[in-house]
Amino acid sequence: MRIRPIMLIAATATAIATAAGVASAATGTHQxxxxxQSKPSGNRVxxxxxxxxxxxxxxxxIGAGAVAKILASCLGADASNFHAVIAVRAPVATxxxxxxxxxxxxxxxxxxxxxxxxxxxxxxxxxxxxxxxxWGTGHLxxxxxxFSEPANGEQTLSLGAGHYTPDVAKITISFGDNPTQYxxxxxxxxxxxTAAISDxxxxxxxxxxxxxxxxxxxQEIYNQQTDxxxxx
Length: 232
Fold this sequence. Notes:
With 232 residues, the chain is mostly beta strands. It is 5% helix and 41% strand. Strands 1, 2, 5, 6, 12, 13, 16 and 17 form an 8-stranded antiparallel beta sheet that branches. A 5-stranded antiparallel beta sheet has the order 7-8-9-10-11, covered by helices on one side.
């Protein structure tokens, strides 16, 4: 079941991020690469009482050639105006999706293009866009798409992406009532998370993802699960 885009509002924010480069999933710090995480990352954690298991948050980079084709499929003639900042395969595939490319243009407009397989095509037509129309006092983080869909076997893919201000140094994701937080991929003002979630009995709905944001001092400045200012 797809969860439609939502806007998340939290405490103080300033301008849109402008630093280039792809960030480390573990630290949120910028690295020189421009299109994908250079090394897969992830872990395996069992939720103690939720009836589900986060089996993997591991990602792998999508090659530059495939990224160019995905953006061309997603954006058409406008693809040359965008450059990818995050391009990764998810740990598990659904019928339609196994990866995502986030790209930005010179006007700081971001686009999310989902993809499946290695043919260099995207089913995101029209693509999901985000721009600076929602930025202002009080905004820290904004989703532009997130969803949960059945994947291979007994698993579900949870995938989401969004935008953050310079006040945010690290973004993590927790699922359901499991307090474990998994680092999101961050780059040039955009973030992506992916997770393979297993429920052997298929008795429970997919656990909701919750965004957590931290400043450079390591202080949590946004918690989607508890912040009453989040708006649909």
